[in-house]
Specification:
heterodimer; A: 275 residues; alpha/beta; 6-stranded mixed sheet; 9 helices; 24% strand; globular; B: 330 residues; mainly alpha; two-stranded antiparallel sheet; 13 helices; 2 strands; 1% strand
Chain lengths: 275, 330
């Protein structure tokens, strides 16, 4: 499926979502009663969460609230101790990052996993190069031109601008690198993208571009989990926020029904009533 | 929600960062210093000694003398591209030379084809200890440097092992036969590095090994193959040299690790891995042999040449190293 197909698909998806109550649209991922313990520390306690296609879900919470344990449980890094995960209605066990990827769940961790001395196209295809003939694995003969053309189209359709497809990603700005990492997730048909603090360490204009890209993903029908500490990002980009506090889901609110002050006080564990 | 999606359309350079397609002065110096040096050396020695240096026969000598160096340095290029080092190539050449000379007394000229195979096995020993023993390649191959050299002395009892016929490459042909091997090898090696997934992973591992693993690349497999290639080509080099000089000598290849590493680094390959090319290595190797040849013609002693080789190596790194990308020197 090309990015154009995906956009059409996404538009369809978005209209279905608009026609019904978003809360009733079937979730891409349904998490119920998730628990994870590290020694005596209960990192996650009975967390329920629905992630829907076409929606940006903000995942908030103070340091140690369980955000990263939760996303690592979804992306196949940790095995949860208890609880169930359903993906598109089917119960799944996400045992490894590869298993997560095959379900269409791509995680863009903070380190981005880009190879600094390779160019953008090489990074988009790293480990999944397009090849000629029957050769596979290390003997695969790379179709440079096809990969470059595909990369150019992918970046164009996501409205990502870089100085040159042949420049090493090391020469890119933080925002451009973030964009390449997101583009890679999209290129490989992600149905859900987890963005781990994508705006941390970016300049203000670059933060705005990453936020725009995030909205674009949602408009193409991708389910997005957006982890952040920045309350302005939450207001700008999310449709819904889930707030974790000491391993439990403290609250879940629609962004449009809430405000910055309420969200901040929820993060600090004061509860909705105190807002 | 007020959100201006058009900001993306303005390109991602609005944070004031000027990007020029990824070239920095040090990149260009590093990439092309060898080519410039080769031209400068030819012009210099040509001016100093036009009647001897600038002859077809002399250029054949230079090619002949750099052939073995090129073969070994091509293998070393793979090793340095993944950010490792192989210090055992010189000793491997000697061990392979002695073993294939011994074999040639039984099986004749076919022993020459045994040379890369023995080298490959030595490379595999390095690879397995390095990759699965998880100790630095520097240590593993330093150990092999000593082990292989010691075995040469044990097996040959300190004497050269003569081969019972005139070698395959004893004659300096026009152009020299070993140089055809170099051209063929360089084409295959360049193809593997630039057209095959293997080559891309070599560069990826040199760029960031942790992330390469995170991305699921077959890092260990690539590292084993790279050290096997280095051993195989050191073996081939040892075989050619044995054939040229007519015996497997116990001192063969002494200090050759330095020669090979110098050729690779002068050729613009980054010692920290991830950047470089086979063509650069060939040119780097020609720089070294042209320098040696020119100095002999000018009557400079070989002892002084050893001093100059070391200075050329350090000079090349001084000019080409990317200090912006390597912040800490150890």
């Amino acid at each position: 499926m090309s990015v154009a197909d995906r956009q059409a698909d996404g538009a369809k998806m978005a209209s279905t979502i608009q026609n019904s109550d978003p809360a009733e649209a079937p979730p891409f991922l349904r998490i119920r009663g998730l628990c994870k313990q590290f020694g005596s520390i209960q990192a996650l306690r009975n967390v329920d969460l629905d992630v829907r296609r076409g929606e940006v879900l903000g995942l908030l919470g103070d340091n140690g609230a369980g955000k990263s344990t939760l996303i690592k449980s979804i992306s196949g890094v940790y095995a949860p101790d208890a609880g169930t995960i359903e993906c598109e209605g089917k119960p799944v066990v996400i045992a490894s990052p590869t298993a997560a990827r095959s379900l269409g769940i791509e995680t863009v961790f903070q380190d981005l996993a880009l190879i600094p001395n390779l160019d953008a196209a090489s990074n988009l295809f790293i480990g999944r190069e397009l090849g000629w003939g029957p050769f596979k694995g290390l003997f695969l003969l790379m179709r440079h031109r096809a990969m470059e053309e595909d990369a150019r189209k992918t970046l164009e359709q996501l409205d990502i601008h870089i100085p040159s497809l042949r420049a090493e990603v090391d020469e890119f700005s933080g925002g451009q690198r973030q964009a390449i990492a997101v583009a890679r997730a999209i290129r490989w048909k992600a149905k859900m993208v987890i963005l781990d603090e994508p705006t941390a360490a970016l300049s203000v204009p670059e933060q705005r571009k990453v936020l725009a890209l995030t909205r674009q993903l949602a408009s193409q029908g991708v389910a997005v989990i957006f982890i952040t500490h920045n309350i302005l990002d939450v207001v700008a980009v999310t449709d819904r926020v889930a707030i974790l506090h000491r391993g439990q889901k403290a609250a879940e609110v629609l962004t449009k029904d809430s405000n910055e002050h309420e969200i901040v006080s929820l993060i600090m564990g004061k509860g909705k009533a105190a807002a | 929600m007020a959100f201006d999606i058009k900001i993306l359309g303005k390109g991602l350079d609005s944070n004031g960062q000027k990007l020029d397609g990824g070239f920095k002065p040090s990149d260009i110096v590093g990439k092309y210093i060898a080519y410039a040096a080769l031209v400068v050396l030819i012009v210099f020695f040509g001016a100093m000694s036009p009647s001897i240096f600038l002859t077809v026969g002399n250029f054949e000598t230079i090619l002949q003398n750099s052939a073995v160096q090129c073969v070994v340095a091509i293998g070393m290029t793979f090793v340095i591209l993944i950010g490792s080092i192989d210090l055992s190539v010189g000793s491997t050449m000697a061990l392979v030379g002695t073993l294939s000379a011994l074999a040639s007394t039984q099986i004749g000229g076919a022993a020459f084809f045994l040379a890369p195979v023995i080298g490959l096995l030595i490379g595999l020993v390095n690879a397995v200890v390095f990759v699965y023993g998880r100790i630095p390649s520097f240590v593993v191959t330093l150990g092999m440097l000593s082990v292989a050299r010691g075995l040469v002395l044990v097996i040959g009892k300190g004497w050269p092992v003569p081969i019972p016929f005139s070698g395959l490459f004893a004659d300096v042909g026009i152009p020299p036969a070993p140089f055809f091997i170099v051209i063929a090898l360089a084409l295959v090696a360049s193809f593997a590095l630039t057209k095959m997934a293997f080559g891309r992973y070599v560069f990826a591992i040199g760029g960031d090994e942790d992330k390469s693993r995170e991305l699921g690349l077959p890092v260990d497999q690539v590292k084993v193959i790279v050290f096997a290639i280095s051993g195989m080509l050191a073996g081939l080099g040892g075989g050619i040299l044995t054939s040229e000089i007519g015996s497997g000598s116990p001192t063969m290849g002494t200090g050759f690790e330095l020669t090979a590493i110098s050729a690779v680094v002068i050729g613009g390959t980054s010692l920290t891995g991830g950047r470089g090319s086979i063509l650069g290595t060939i040119v780097g190797s020609l720089v070294m042999s042209t320098l040696a040849n020119g100095l002999i013609i000018l009557g400079v002693s070989t002892d002084v040449q050893i001093v100059l080789t070391g200075m050329v190596l350090v000079g090349a790194v001084l000019l080409s190293i990317q200090r912006g990308k390597i912040r800490i020197m150890k």
